[in-house]
Amino acid sequence: MKVSIIIPFYNCPYIDQAINSALRQTYKNIEVIVVDDGSTQYVEKIQPFKNRIKYIRKANGGTATALNTGLRHATGKYFAWLSSDDMFLESKVAKQLSYMQSVGARLSYTAFKTIDRHNKVVNEIHSRKMSKNVFQKLLLKACPVNGCTVMAETDLLKQAGWFDERLKYTQDYEMWCRLTQHTHMHYLDEVLVLYRVHSDMGSAKNGGGMVKESQYIQNKYRNFFKMSRKKDL
User: What is the pLDDT of residue 200?
Assistant: First the structure.
């Protein structure tokens, strides 16, 4: 089964490392889709890979628009998102897909390591297996999921609706909340992603906007999750 790895790209100096990590997957039935969101810098770093990827350039519109563009061009049964400053371990797709098939999951996420500008490991972040209700309660406090650790059936995202393009910083958080109304998000307790922490990353530069959007998401889904729990009783 094909897996579509979508990489939104906007002026990121680490894009070549991200693409290389996607192409080096041990699972070979993949397509790598790089969506250039109107970049004016570092575009030349993509050139050596163009014969091995799908490259799509569009006007700048934000991460959600880039992800949605990638999804519209995706032909894989599964979707994986890789930020342009992060990296997948070589076994990421193989291990996560095998896990999902073994438990019948349509949606999952994993543990990850944080790295610095020089690829030095800084920390290791683990979550835990949770019931749907416990997971939804946690979502109402904060987002416990690193977006680049997620793998999902492509049809599931299309069924739930596209990433919300009105959200500039938390489109992933909102999507995970939405998807839990359709299925359970399973957790694989294995490090499969290297998440880069640096001063130019979006979460470091847009803290105020992230807080405001997070509060909107929590208020939006509080009643939805209550209704979902009542239906399960």
Answer: 72
d(CA 14, CA 219) in angstroms, rounded, equals 35
> Hey, what are 18's tokens?
């991200």
Rounded distance between C-alpha atoms, residue 169 and residue 161, angstroms: 18
Displacement of CA 219 from its chain's centroid (Å): 22
Q: With contact defined as beta carbons under 8 Å apart, do 94 and 27 qualify?
A: yes
pTM of the model: 0.94
Residue 2 Cα to chain centre, angstroms: 17
- The label of the residue with tokens 């290389």 reads 20
For β-strands 30-37 and 3-9, DSSP reports them as parallel
pLDDT given at position 223: 86
Residue 108 corresponds to which tokens in the numbers above?
A: 């999952």
Cα pseudo-dihedral 106, 135, 133, 79, rounded to 10 = -20
DSSP run (H or E) holding 191: strand 186-196
163, 213 in Cβ contact below 8 A? no
